[in-house]
Amino acid sequence: MEPVNVAIIYYSATGNVHTLAQAVAEGAEKAGAQVRLRKVAETAPDAAIGANPAWVEHRAATTDVAEATHDDLSWADAVLFGTPSRFGNPASQLRAFIDTTGPLWFAGKIAGKVFSAFTASNTAHGGQESTILALSNTFYHWGGIIVPPGYTDPIQFQSGNPYGTSHVATEGAPGEVALQAARHQARRVVDTAAALKAGRNEI
User: Where is the signal peptide (predicted)?
Assistant: First the structure.
């Protein structure tokens, strides 16, 4: 069977979600998937970015990461979205990309794909679960198949979020527990997408 195509589409201001996205990519690749790691376009004004040295540094450090396009969604069998939590919702930069996908949705080109999500917030109760659930609302409209990590691996009992990998930014960069959880989530997504792809090829 052909490998599963996985697109990892994320927004990261200061690098935490980017680090999680890299771990997701590692997990997907080790599970045998072909992977595209893509960031969405930055929409914040330069003045806002310039006021935060970490934001400036991360923007410069990730100039080599390609920006997400509709082709990445069409190509993928599975998509994992990553975003900081903004008042319990996805960041506006990610929403801006998602809100351009109407033509794909209308043509049925993203229905039946596997979707999952991961996030970071400044505090432990900063909207991590609601951010992932908010993204799920979009996946429902797309006719997507939502695959959460659940408590399907021992690492999940350490990370504690069955909805999707999450990280508390004020604790520093994502640690090994969050990175292992991200890799597990990716493997679970790839395994599910592979089973679906195999079944469809037999029809």
Answer: none
